[in-house]
Structures are given as structure tokens and as C-alpha cells.
């Protein structure tokens, strides 16, 4: 036998018993974002490597060690997108959708990061991203957060996630803070973990995120970012909080929240859960007013967030929050004996689908004897089985078996669709 080829480590197949949960989640998201006036945008999975280097930032974890980068046949460096924001900006700007206008956009699809695979962390994973452009006031930050809260509410997740908020100020404020932080931390360099020592020279803000105990101990007396936040950033942050309060959305302020991507400024936020171990963040985002310009466009304010579909699916499963309607099930199984009945069953199955688009109608293919076909009907767990033989065709009727009660009755073929509609 030929050797079987396996999937790439950290890249999962979504099998039929899981895909219905994905469809349910994607449909719920699509409905919610639409109700806020967001339109979908689609862009390629592969982009020029420079887009992510410039967009996400050279010293971020993503660019430093997580990208799938390769040369194409022309020797051009391409990268499988590790996130969607940079591509979304590239696409929207390229199409002239950004300058002097507002946009509310969303996207969904696979992202690729070379990380150590574990529960809730994969090398191909999927995000749904929501981005807004052209609005500088913090009310759009609030809208995005409220939109995400509505989504959690629809999914039954609201009480299982916590909103963490912070403001990381303007770029100039962060620069002053970074200098103060580096000055302070340099005195204790030996006590920092290896990653943090390296970040001292590259991305010092990320040190605040370190899980290392010794680093955390040093950080206790470090300068606080909030002391460096200017009036404008603070006013925006206060405004955002006031809107959230008015809408009854609880939040906690996490002064250590800085986010791992370079492009954020002012508002940053995460929705975290205690149900997924260390992969706790299901949704993360913030304001990134500098990114469009950094990527060569005209300065455009922007805010957005992305959520991880795998983590949300895990959360829904862990909490048993998948509604029965979301699960795939067969409503009607159609079997037939003989050539005439075979043809008639096709026509009948089409009619059922035509008259009730929600029905799942499975017509048995490939013939076989009555007993075998009935076994398949049983296994399908359909609510009804429709049986057609030559006698039924001659009389213009069919047998309908209610699989939950075992009761079987004869009905005119013309009435079947209407009858099933009253039952399902
Ligand atoms: P983390 O801190 O967990 O590494 P991140 O800050 O790298 O997350 P973002 O780039 O902000 O994550 O992506 C937004 C969301 O996408 C995350 O909150 C998470 O839900 C999801 N996500 C990120 N990386 C992965 C991954 N490797 N596998 C599965 N989901 C992921
Ligand atoms: Mg990460």
C-alpha cells in the first residue's frame, strides 16, 4: 500500500461533525456585523512579505519568528498572511476606499503562524476580523466593542468572557514611556527572562506581557504607562468608557495590556475567558491610526479587532452552547424499490426541497433491497422516511413513516410536501 500523506502539523481538517458549529458561528457573526452596517471584504491569502514586515512590525513575534515566508518562482518574497489587518488596509487603500471616507469592513479566513501547536494555538487558524476606517472619535471604538458584546450575547458567551481595556496613548507618548521603561529595566537586566532581555532593545513594551515571575517582580516598581498618557488619549479613553457604561457593558482596565502588534495606539482591548487555559484571548483589537500611512496611504484613522474561530468553537463546545438547530440532521430519508419508483422518488425529493428550503432531504442512491434501504434510513436518524414502490407509483401515493413513533401511513404524493411542512 502506498504511504499515506498526513496533514501539516498544526494545520487541522475541520471534519463534518465540527463544520456545523463553524457554519453556525460564521452565520451568527455575518448576521451581527451586517446589522451594524459592516460589509465583507476578501483579499488573498498570500501577500508581499514587506506588507507584514512594515504593517505588523519587524520586532513583533509574528514577523520575527512566526511567518511562513517563501520565494516564488520569480524570486519574489511572499508570505502566507499571519493576520488580516495589514492585508485589509492594503486592499482597501489599493481600491481607493480609504481616503476621505468612512468604511466598515469585515473578513474571515485562514491565517498562518509558525507557532508551537497546542490547544487553541495552531499553525493554520482562522480569524474573523472587523475593521473601521476614517473615524477618529472614540465612539467608533465603542461601536466595535458593543458589536462584539452583541455577538457574545447571541452565542450565549457574554457571561463567560471578560472585556479588558487599556489606552496605550499616542506614538510620541509611548516613545517617552519606552525610554523611561528601558532606563529602569536596564538596571535589572540580569533578572529579566531571556525574551525580555532581547526585547529591551527591540520591543520593550512587550516585556509588560511577560509571564516570567522574576521579570514580573522587577516590573512591580517600573514606571507606569498611564503616567505618560496625554490629555487627548485620556479624553478618548474616558469617552469610550462612558459609552460602554451607558450600554451596560462591564469591563476591567488592564494597565499591562499592550497587544503584540506594532500598529496599535490609544484604545486596545481583549476579550478573555477562563475556560481555555493559557490560550485565554478569544478576541483582540484596538485603534491603529498610523497604519494606513505607514503602508503608504494617506493618514486615515482606523480601529478594528480580530477573533479566533478555533478558540470560539472550543469555548462553545466546552460550555455546551451549541443549539440543536445548529447541528446537522436529516429530516426526510427517501427510499424506493423499482425503476418507476426510483424516478418518482427523485421528483418527490426535489419537490420537498422546493417547498421547504430548510428541509434536509436525503434520497437514497444506488438501489438495493427494502431491508437494506430501511437500515440506512434508520442510521440516518431522519425524522421521516418516505417509501415508494411500484404499487405506490401506480396509485399516486407514498408511505410516510414517522421514525420517532414507528407509525406509517399512506398519503397522496401531491400532499406530502405540505404534510411534512406541518410536521417539521
Ligand atoms: P496570543 O497572545 O494568544 O498569541 P495574539 O496576540 O498573537 O494572541 P492576535 O494576533 O491579536 O493574537 O489575533 C487575534 C486572535 O486570533 C487571538 O485573540 C486568538 O483568538 C486568535 N489567534 C491568534 N493566534 C492564534 C493561533 N496560533 N491559533 C489559534 N488562534 C489564534
Ligand atoms: Mg501570538
TrEMBL record:
<dbReference type="Pfam" id="PF03129">
    <property type="entry name" value="HGTP_anticodon"/>
</dbReference>
<protein>
    <recommendedName>
        <fullName>Histidine--tRNA ligase</fullName>
        <ecNumber>6.1.1.21</ecNumber>
    </recommendedName>
</protein>
<comment type="subunit">
    <text>Homodimer.</text>
</comment>
<dbReference type="InterPro" id="IPR004154">
    <property type="entry name" value="Anticodon-bd"/>
</dbReference>
<keyword id="KW-0547">Nucleotide-binding</keyword>
<dbReference type="GO" id="GO:0004821">
    <property type="term" value="F:histidine-tRNA ligase activity"/>
</dbReference>
<feature type="binding site">
    <location>
        <position position="131"/>
    </location>
    <ligand>
        <name>L-histidine</name>
    </ligand>
</feature>
<dbReference type="InterPro" id="IPR036621">
    <property type="entry name" value="Anticodon-bd_dom_sf"/>
</dbReference>
<dbReference type="InterPro" id="IPR006195">
    <property type="entry name" value="aa-tRNA-synth_II"/>
</dbReference>
<dbReference type="Pfam" id="PF13393">
    <property type="entry name" value="tRNA-synt_His"/>
</dbReference>
<dbReference type="GO" id="GO:0005524">
    <property type="term" value="F:ATP binding"/>
</dbReference>
<feature type="binding site">
    <location>
        <position position="127"/>
    </location>
    <ligand>
        <name>L-histidine</name>
    </ligand>
</feature>
<dbReference type="InterPro" id="IPR033656">
    <property type="entry name" value="HisRS_anticodon"/>
</dbReference>
<comment type="similarity">
    <text>Belongs to the class-II aminoacyl-tRNA synthetase family.</text>
</comment>
<dbReference type="GO" id="GO:0005737">
    <property type="term" value="C:cytoplasm"/>
</dbReference>
<dbReference type="InterPro" id="IPR004516">
    <property type="entry name" value="HisRS/HisZ"/>
</dbReference>
<dbReference type="InterPro" id="IPR041715">
    <property type="entry name" value="HisRS-like_core"/>
</dbReference>
<keyword id="KW-0648">Protein biosynthesis</keyword>
<feature type="binding site">
    <location>
        <begin position="83"/>
        <end position="85"/>
    </location>
    <ligand>
        <name>L-histidine</name>
    </ligand>
</feature>
<keyword id="KW-0436">Ligase</keyword>
<feature type="domain" description="Aminoacyl-transfer RNA synthetases class-II family profile">
    <location>
        <begin position="1"/>
        <end position="316"/>
    </location>
</feature>
<keyword id="KW-0030">Aminoacyl-tRNA synthetase</keyword>
<dbReference type="GO" id="GO:0006427">
    <property type="term" value="P:histidyl-tRNA aminoacylation"/>
</dbReference>
<dbReference type="InterPro" id="IPR015807">
    <property type="entry name" value="His-tRNA-ligase"/>
</dbReference>
<keyword id="KW-0963">Cytoplasm</keyword>
<feature type="binding site">
    <location>
        <position position="113"/>
    </location>
    <ligand>
        <name>L-histidine</name>
    </ligand>
</feature>
<feature type="binding site">
    <location>
        <begin position="263"/>
        <end position="264"/>
    </location>
    <ligand>
        <name>L-histidine</name>
    </ligand>
</feature>
<feature type="binding site">
    <location>
        <position position="259"/>
    </location>
    <ligand>
        <name>L-histidine</name>
    </ligand>
</feature>
<keyword id="KW-0067">ATP-binding</keyword>
<dbReference type="InterPro" id="IPR045864">
    <property type="entry name" value="aa-tRNA-synth_II/BPL/LPL"/>
</dbReference>
Amino acid at each position: 500500500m502506498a504511504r499515506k500523506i498526513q496533514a501539516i502539523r498544526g494545520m487541522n481538517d475541520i471534519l463534518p461533525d465540527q463544520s456545523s458549529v463553524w457554519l453556525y458561528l460564521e452565520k451568527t457573526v455575518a448576521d451581527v456585523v451586517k446589522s451594524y452596517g459592516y460589509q465583507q471584504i476578501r483579499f488573498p491569502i498570500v501577500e508581499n512579505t514587506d506588507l507584514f514586515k512594515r504593517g505588523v512590525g519587524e520586532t513583533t513575534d509574528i514577523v520575527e519568528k512566526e511567518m511562513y515566508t517563501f520565494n516564488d518562482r520569480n524570486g519574489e518574497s511572499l508570505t502566507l498572511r499571519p493576520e488580516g489587518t495589514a492585508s485589509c488596509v492594503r486592499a482597501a487603500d489599493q481600491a481607493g476606499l480609504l481616503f476621505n471616507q468612512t468604511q466598515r469592513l469585515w473578513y474571515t479566513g485562514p491565517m498562518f503562524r509558525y507557532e508551537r501547536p497546542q490547544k487553541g494555538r495552531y499553525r493554520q487558524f482562522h480569524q474573523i476580523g472587523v475593521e473601521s476606517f476614517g473615524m477618529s472619535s472614540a465612539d467608533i471604538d465603542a461601536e466595535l466593542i458593543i458589536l462584539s458584546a452583541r455577538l457574545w450575547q447571541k452565542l450565549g458567551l457574554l457571561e463567560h468572557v471578560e472585556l479588558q481595556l487599556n489606552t496605550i496613548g499616542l506614538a510620541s507618548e509611548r516613545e517617552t514611556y519606552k525610554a523611561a521603561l528601558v532606563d529602569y529595566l536596564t538596571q535589572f537586566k540580569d533578572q529579566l527572562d531571556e525574551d525580555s532581555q532581547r526585547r529591551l532593545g527591540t520591543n520593550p513594551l512587550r516585556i509588560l506581557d511577560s509571564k516570567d515571575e522574576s521579570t514580573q517582580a522587577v516590573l512591580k516598581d517600573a514606571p507606569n504607562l498611564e503616567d505618560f498618557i496625554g490629555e487627548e488619549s485620556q479624553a478618548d479613553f474616558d469617552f469610550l468608557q462612558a459609552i460602554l457604561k451607558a450600554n451596560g457593558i462591564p469591563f476591567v482596565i488592564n494597565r499591562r495590556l499592550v497587544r503584540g502588534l506594532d500598529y496599535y495606539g490609544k484604545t486596545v482591548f481583549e476579550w478573555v475567558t477562563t475556560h481555555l487555559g493559557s490560550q485565554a484571548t478569544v478576541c483582540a483589537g484596538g485603534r491603529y491610526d498610523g497604519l494606513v500611512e505607514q503602508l503608504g496611504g494617506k493618514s486615515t484613522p482606523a480601529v478594528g479587532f480580530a477573533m479566533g474561530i478555533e478558540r470560539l468553537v472550543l469555548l462553545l463546545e466546552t460550555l455546551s452552547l451549541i443549539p440543536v438547530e445548529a447541528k446537522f440532521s436529516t429530516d426526510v430519508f427517501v427510499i424506493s424499490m423499482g425503476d418507476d419508483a426510483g424516478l418518482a422518488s427523485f421528483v418527490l425529493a426535489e419537490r420537498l426541497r422546493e417547498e421547504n428550503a430548510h428541509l434536509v432531504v436525503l434520497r437514497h442512491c444506488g438501489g438495493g433491497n427494502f431491508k437494506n434501504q430501511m437500515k440506512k434510513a434508520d442510521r440516518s436518524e431522519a425524522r421521516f422516511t418516505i417509501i415508494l414502490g411500484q404499487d405506490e407509483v401506480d396509485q399516486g401515493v407514498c408511505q410516510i413513516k414517522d421514525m420517532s413513533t414507528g407509525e406509517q401511513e399512506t398519503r397522496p404524493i401531491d400532499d406530502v410536501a405540505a404534510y411534512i411542512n406541518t410536521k417539521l
